[in-house]
Write a structure and sequence with these properties.
about 110 residues, alpha/beta, Transcription Regulator spoIIAA, 5-stranded mixed β-sheet, 5 strands
């Protein structure tokens, strides 16, 4: 059983707790697992919890952007939470927090 993403369902939300660094080696399997669960559950909100992530590169931004696109296709919102100051800086510099269907909780 993979432990890179831990899923929890609660009140119409699917919470995807990322449990490792997000880079080009880890992003693809995480994307696939989150997408599978997203289309299976079809929540109103997908929460991506980054509180256990110490490092994220542009692959992580791609992971987030792709999940926003997939969730929007299901009329769901995406909420990012738990980002460290370092990861929050990457998110802010990229400008993805201005994307429709995405909320970033600092």
């Amino acid at each position: 059983m993979q432990k890179d993403v831990i899923f929890t369902e609660k009140n119409g939300m699917l919470i995807a707790g990322i449990c490792c660094d997000v880079d080009h080696h880890t992003a693809k399997p995480m994307r696939e697992r989150i997408d599978k669960k997203l289309f299976e559950i079809r929540p109103q909100t997908l929460v991506i919890d980054l509180s256990s992530v110490d490092f994220m590169d542009s692959s992580g931004l791609g992971l987030i952007l792709g999940r926003v696109e997939k969730a929007a296709a299901l009329n769901a919102e995406v909420v990012l939470t738990g980002a460290s100051p370092r990861i929050m800086k990457l998110i802010s510099l990229s400008g993805i927090e201005r994307i429709r269907h995405l909320s970033v909780i600092k």
